[in-house]
Amino acid sequence: MAARPQQPMVGRVIGVDDATPLEFWVAVAPGHTLQLDDVVALERVLPTGEQVDIYGVVGQVRARHEGASFQSDVFLIAEGILPGEVSEAALIQPTRFEPEILLPPTPGSPVRLATEYERDTALSFDSVDRKLPAGLSRSDEPIFLDLDFVDGTKGAHINISGISGVATKTSYATFLLYSMFTSGALGAESANTRALIFNVKGEDLLFLDYPNRSLDSQADGVDQGRRYKALGLTPAPFRDVGIVAPPRKGDPNATPATGSRKTGVAPFFWTLADFCHQRLLPFLFADAEDERQQYTIVVQSVTAQLAQLEGTDDGAVRFENRLVRTFADLVDALEDKLSPTDADQSPDPRWTGRAVGSGTINAFIRRLASARRHVEHLLRADIADAQHHALDLDQHQVTVVDIHSLHDRAKRFVVGVVLRQAFEAKEASGSAKPLQFVVLDELNKYAPRDSSSPIKEILLDVAERGRSLGIILIGAQQTASEVERRVVANSAIRVVGRLDAAEARRDEYGFLPAVARARATILKPGSMYLSQPRLPVPLLVEFPFPAWATRPAEAGRSPIGGGGASASETGKIEAAEADPFSGLTS
């Protein structure tokens, strides 16, 4: 077999610094350079004549004057008064030995840049059967994830950390989803795979089905089409998107409460019968401190009793002698039930729990009443066809649940209820396929490290059992140190964007080498460290500028079909050059 072409030598293994199977230094040859993230290759020949191919990634680079004794000698050397040579050296972190004989390289061994087949071997891409495009190197070479560690075959779940607004956590999460749906990595399963995305901040995720008209003009002059092509992808918006939003408060027609987006949005809420029979009350008490309060005894007792109430065809419930259609009416009925006006009458222990004092009951009532103004528009049976607004997670390939305008208590309620619906649906299906991806930002709020809540228990179930059920969590947060350890530890793929300097020193980022930790504090948007089980070192990846709109100002012509605009509305958008939403007002 003819020898494969190799790159010229760029340096030799240094002999005055220790070389180990875990790291070694390379002196850079004159006229050449090695920079951070470069991939290199070299060989060592054993006494038996067998050759070991060694591959690695540049983790640090240094330059110094050789021949200088004092710091001030730099001036004399620069003026030619003292002899001195500039030497550069690169620290190599080995990624692969082929065959796997873990020996250090021999000092003086020539080192070359690894390209094409050698680069694929160095990064173990050659042994991955199902490659998921995950981004590009700084040289615009593709970087892949092993899909087996994403879809549950060998591992599951992705965790993304980084500073809000700088680390582009949600942008990278949506890029990975787009890659999964369009790269062919999922094969025939792609058409049936579903994604559930919670839009927790702003309206950034409400325009995934709109093309990004700023794709080229705001991409720093980089050819984004070429970057997508390098990954085997075509730049385009998501094709099948459903957007659901809470109804406006006080609106008898349950009009979705969205700002810029006026079409292709459906309202979501639950009927009073759903609230009672599905035992949703505990999710109104899902704040971090609630599990430490005694009134949770009352919560459980009331939940059990509400589940026994008779429901009507239109979603109302019969509470003793009254028909309850609104959450406000339900709160009033519970107050009357738990706090009898007759001084001689005691509360029914079936509703309050045994050995519970009046103070505990009053604490429950106050807490329930305070939730009323935040969630009453989400729990109702006062409009026609209320039951037809139940959330259907299978209707579209991507379902975006917009909760950014809700109060924190209402956000927790929606996240908990929808997550439970998705989890129970996968449990009931009895099959891991098709996959259900869940994208949730602000994970530290819903699965905090030092407290308990119904939502946290569901997220732990997803993290620990989701792999076998086919429900995959793509979780994101600013600070992984504040998230429940088991949620993060069960994530096979770890991604880190720009970090706060104090956060970067936490133990949760121990998988990053010291240089990478320091570098994470200055990463630019669109750059992430990617750690996966197949590689012993994390890789720096960049991902293309989103081809879908990430805010209202970027939204171009909407595609026809899915959650987008109709054909007539599309024409109006095309005509509105100055304002893409001028023809969409309702």
Short description:
With 586 residues, the chain is α/β, with parallel strands linked by helices. The protein has helices spanning 73-78, 117-122, 169-182, 224-230, 272-277, 296-306, 327-338, 349-352, 358-375, 408-429, 443-446, 454-469, 485-489, 501-504, 514-520, 567-575; strands at 9-13, 24-28, 39-45, 51-66, 85-98, 110-113, 131-136, 142-146, 158-161, 194-199, 241-245, 265-267, 310-311, 317-319, 322-324, 398-402, 436-440, 471-477, 493-496, 527-531, 539-542. The longest helix has 22 residues, at 408-429.
What can you tell me about this protein's structure?
The protein has three domains: 115 residues, no CATH class; 295 residues, 3-Layer(aba) Sandwich (Rossmann fold), CATH 3.40.50; 115 residues, no CATH class. Helix content is 26%, strand content 20%. It is built from 16 helices and 21 strands. Strands 12-11-16-10-17-18-9-19-20-21 form a ten-stranded mixed β-sheet. The chain has a six-stranded antiparallel beta barrel with strand order 1-2-5-4-3-6. Strands 13-14-15 form a three-stranded antiparallel β-sheet. Strand 7 and strand 8 form a beta hairpin. Helix 7 runs antiparallel to helix 9 and helix 10 runs parallel beside helix 12. The chain is elongated, with a radius of gyration of 29 Å. The C terminus is likely disordered.
Sum up the structure in keywords:
586 residues; alpha/beta; six-stranded antiparallel β-barrel; 16 helices; elongated; disordered C terminus
Topology overview:
Layout (H helix, E strand, L loop, with lengths): L8 E5 L10 E5 L10 E7 L5 E16 L6 H6 L6 E14 L11 E4 L3 H6 L8 E6 L5 E5 L11 E4 L7 H14 L11 E6 L24 H7 L10 E5 L19 E3 L4 H6 L18 H11 L3 E2 L5 E3 L2 E3 L2 H12 L10 H4 L5 H18 L22 E5 L5 H22 L6 E5 L2 H4 L7 H16 L1 E7 L7 H5 L3 E4 L4 H4 L9 H7 L6 E5 L7 E4 L24 H9 L11
Parallel strand pairs: 9-18, 9-19, 10-16, 10-17, 11-12, 11-16, 17-18
Antiparallel strand pairs: 1-2, 1-6, 2-5, 3-4, 3-6, 4-5, 7-8, 13-14, 14-15, 19-20, 20-21
Helix pairs in contact: 7-9, 10-12
